[in-house]
Amino acid sequence: MKQVNLIVHSLKYLRESLSNYIEEDEICKHIWEKLLGKDYGSEIEFIEQLEDEEVVQLNHVLEKEIDYAHDVQDEVRIKELNDIYELLL
User: Fold this and answer.
1) What is the chain's Cα-based Rg?
2) pTM of structure
3) 3-state secondary structure the chain
4) Contacts for 82 with CB less than 8 Å, ≥ 6 apart
């Protein structure tokens, strides 16, 4: 049960991070809408349904967001976003 909560938690952090880009980036908006439109059982389930261009853009966004989390020393955000980032590689 705790594992599911952690998975959902990571995707919530991702959704929140993507919300910073949806007005200026159509790919981020599309990814964000996917996260809103379906309850994914795992990060892997979510990542497997992404298109190649979405993976590329998500990698770029996560790099920036993880760097920002390091700058503000938000260890929880770093961990949650890094969990997803590592799955994309």
Assistant:
1) 12
2) 0.86
3) CHHHHHHHHHHHHHHHHHCCCCCCCHHHHHHHHHHHHCCCCCHHHHHHCCCHHHHHHHHHHHHHHHHHHHHCCCHHHHHHHHHHHHHHC
4) 66
Query: What is the spatial distance between Cα 25 and Cα 45, in angstroms, rounded to a whole number?
Result: 23
Cβ neighbours of residue 22 closer than 8 Å, sequence gap 6 or more: 28, 29, 32
What pLDDT does 19 receive? Answer: 95
Q: CA distances (Å), 32 to each of 14, 23, 36, 43, 72, in order?
A: 8, 11, 6, 14, 24
Q: Phi/psi at 32 (nearest 5 deg)? A: -60, -45
Residue 6 has pLDDT above 60, yes or no: no
More confident residue, 60 or 5: 60
Rounded to whole angstroms, how far apart are CA atoms 60 and 5? Answer: 26
